[in-house]
Amino acid sequence: MPGTVLLIAASPVGKGCLVDAASVLPVLAAVAPSVLSGTDTANVVELADPLEPQAVLTRLRAAATAPGPLTVYLAGQLQLDRRQHLPHLALARTTPSTVRYTAFPWHWVREELRLRSPGTTTLFADLHADAEAWQHLVSHPLTAGPGVTLYGRVAPPPPRRAVAAPSYMKALATLLRSGQRPAPAQLHQHALTRAWGEGEPAGIVLAAEAQVPAASDPHAVISAAVQAGRHGEAAALAAQWEQSAVRAYGPGSGQALHWMEVRADLAMFAGDPVLSCRAWLAVAAARLGAGESPDTPAVESAVDRAHHQWGRIRDAARARELGPALADLRHRVPGRREGALRHIRQHLDELGAAQLTG
Hints:
This protein is of the alpha/beta class.
């Protein structure tokens, strides 16, 4: 089965830039796709200095839903959201004061990759952190989820007014240009050794093998059903696990909410935006009802996803039906995108006008 390769290089423009992330792309692009992926054939998608978090999310989501192995090569810099103190991948327009709105939240990486079959996803990361993010990461290690194999390093900020190079990723690409593809762990170790040999600071080494569960793990079974196109079977399994979680832990428990989110994702994978929107609205309402703050990442993500799926609904009647509930939630959870509530109201006005002309 063909593999998928996603190349991402992101860093701010101007004086806030800590690393010349895009400089590694020509080196990676010179490597054969099959070598980048470790499969006989592979599709390669490149994202250079993206401007918007949604652009990164779209590409990552598409890659995460593709069948076959996925390998992500990520170079960039990390900064903290000053409001919630969460690490973000800085993008072209990111400044210290706009991280929350212009950077890509790291926890979105975990969310998008969580339903992939364990052992099919490898993430190589070469990241530089600003001073605040560096202090945070010392006590809060960076992870990509239990089903993802993560290798790489996080380097401390370079000297003042200096711009670092993604030396680990360049070493990785140089090794791969030989045409050989060693096992990820071996490739990672060779790249670290080469980067350190060039005087790079050791930084924080990222090395986390995917936790491959036994043949009875529900996530693995559901993921296999999705990749085989058996969406009804996947949804039924998720619903069963949700009911089990409700009985065992209660309707507002983290376990039950997790399976609600899985069902919402499965509806999206099945191409049913109405059902997915309903499910994400229910997730957001349940989290708020359980006492979570409107600005917590899980609540914001649920409303963002409901909004995204609502925008994909082609049945005007269904869109009109769900719009008021979404607008109510958007009023309580404005999220990171400026004008999100205004967009809903404008679209509802358009749907109303369409009803009158129809």
